[in-house]
Amino acid sequence: MIEKSIEIYYDVSTILHAPGGDLLAALEFRNDALEVIDAALEDAGAGEWEGAEIGTDPLTGAPEVNFGFAVDDFDLAEAIVRAAVADTPYVGIREIRRSEQGAPHYA
């Protein structure tokens, strides 16, 4: 069985309530954004929360926050996420990364 997930990334520097990279404020922002997005995905039966992290962008070294959801349909889940954050403080998503585990491998 193929397991699909999406991870949503925000740059800490773009979070309005985290001036100068305030990590506590960034974590609060992440948790609030996660609640909004989780509710939207759950209401649509399109995703289930898997986890959340704080770390650094491997390319730039800049601080980032992220969280992920198990999903069945990438396009549907991403559309729900973008609709949920439209016109909110959480609209500034840097990236929505898609991942598949257990996909068949052919030689």
Please, could you describe this protein's structure?
The protein has 107 residues and is an alpha+beta fold. The protein has one domain (10-101). The protein contains two helices and four strands; from the N terminus they run βαββαβ. The protein has helices at 23-43, 74-85; strands at 3-11, 47-56, 63-71, 95-101. Strands 2-3-1-4 form a four-stranded antiparallel sheet. A hairpin with a 6-residue loop joins strand 2 (47-56) and strand 3 (63-71). Helix 1 packs across helix 2 (74-85). The model has no long low-confidence stretch (mean pLDDT 91).
Q: Nutshell version of this structure?
A:
The chain is α+β, with helices and mostly antiparallel strands. The chain is 31% helix and 33% strand. Strands 2-3-1-4 form a four-stranded antiparallel sheet.
List keywords for this structure.
107 residues; alpha+beta; four-stranded antiparallel β-sheet; 2 helices; globular
Nearest-integer average pLDDT: 91
Helix content: 25-40%
Question: How large is the share of residues in beta strands?
Answer: 25-35%
Distance between the termini: 19 Å
* Radius of gyration (Å): 14 Å
Report the strand count: 4
- Helix segment count? 2
Unreliable residue stretches = none
| Order of SSEs | EHEEHE
Name the strands of the widest sheet in spatial order.
2-3-1-4
